[in-house]
Structure prediction request, 492 residues.
Amino acid sequence: MNLRVEPPLALLAELSHRCPLQCPYCSNPLELERAGKELDTKTWLRVLDEAAAMGMHQVHFSGGEPTVRKDLEQLVEHATKVGLYTNLITSGVLLDEVRLRTLADLGLEHVQVSFQDTDEHNADRIAGFKGHKKKLEVARLVRKIGLPLTVNAVVHRQNIDHVPDFLEMAVELDAERIEIAQVQYYGWALKNRAAFIPTYEQLKRTTKIVEEARQRLKGVLVIDYVVPDYYAKRPKTCMGGWARRFLNISPAGKVLPCHAAESIPTLQFDTVQEHSLQWIWENSAAFNKYRGTEWMPEPCRSCDRKELDWGGCRCQAYALTGDAGTIDPACELSPLHQATFGLAMKEAAAEAPEFIYRRIGADETPDAPVFATTREPAE
Amino acid sequence: MERIVISEASVPAFPRGVKFRFNNAKQQWVILAPERLLEPDETAVEVLKLIDGKVALGTVIDKLAAMFKAPRDVIATDVVAMLQDLADKAFLIDAAASPHAQGAAKTAAGGKA
Prediction:
């Protein structure tokens, strides 16, 4: 690619895949990295330097559970020093007041705490861990020490009817923002799709509740809302476009265009041990493969929305068809759109199966793409 | 928390977690907030540069009217609307009404250290 590539805006730093929770919709890959493979502190510090030098604005410390890393304080301090805005995405269950205060004093700007439900019993069942009470406590601590809080609410058929309670909880916790994100189906969530996908009626009802709450809570609570792709008309602008806005570093140092990109087996990823971030951003084959609009098939290529949704989601195209270079089936222009919608309806109507919990050593084989054709994936 | 209503009596401030800063590598002013990024245009940058959590908006508007040599009422309408929009998106607070102003938070943190 000869075009000058605009630098990315933000770095998603997945510090570790270790996590006490076992959420069956986890966005981590099925094959989780062991602790021994994790990048050392020195390498992360260098990566933060490189991100700032590239002009990136923000770093999101995520995982797994990022607070399992004992050097989190050092990384937050360094990121702040080099001018990056720092955000912590956490389950909260390993945090206490002393550590939170230390992180805040070192420059941490914002905390996102995930919640599995508003009902304690159901939340702990979904997480596979007794942590709901502790999460509430930590969310209150975040506000007590004056940091802004986002409540991350992952919703699906087994908690979607509690969306009004989630909104109430966020207001009660004095959060300034809530993300009501329907499960997206990659990795672990794909394995558990039938246990999560809501009915179309549940979705419509929830969307109405969210729209009403946005009016009612204007200026009080910012509400971000993500609908499940399978019921969408047009695909989401995944990551703001492949290799356009973000880069994601896995615990072992692989640099990815998005956190799910490793689910596409035809891609090869470069690592921060071998190359600089700048080099990877501009030269990595995995980034350039679906960057911009040149790679697009029809009807994307001649679509007037091609520079709005940037072809949707490559991981989803792969997960459903076995070809990451094809049209995202979430788009109504895809010949598979009706079938995808139908698949969701059918699974949502049946009884929810048992969860396959996210843990090392659980079934790591990816599910075969349901709409796979016999054609080989495009190289 | 109640909705903030911006008026000339407001003392606009960036809350903790919101940063209005110049990115040296990109030579660009940005507003950073949780998972959000705004790229204010040149006019907005001039307005935001005057926001320090101490000066009332009325005074800011006086300065802008002098700076741009424009009718004060036109500037006032535009600036109040722009800041109200930022407040509704949680990028701005009224330090006269809120205890969560950046200045106040900094003092608290400083007191601890």
Observations:
- Chain A touches chain B at residues 7, 9-10, 52-55, 57-58, 60, 83, 85, 87, 101, 104-105, 109-110, 112, 146-148, 150, 171, 174, 176-177, 218-222, 224 (CB under 8 Å).
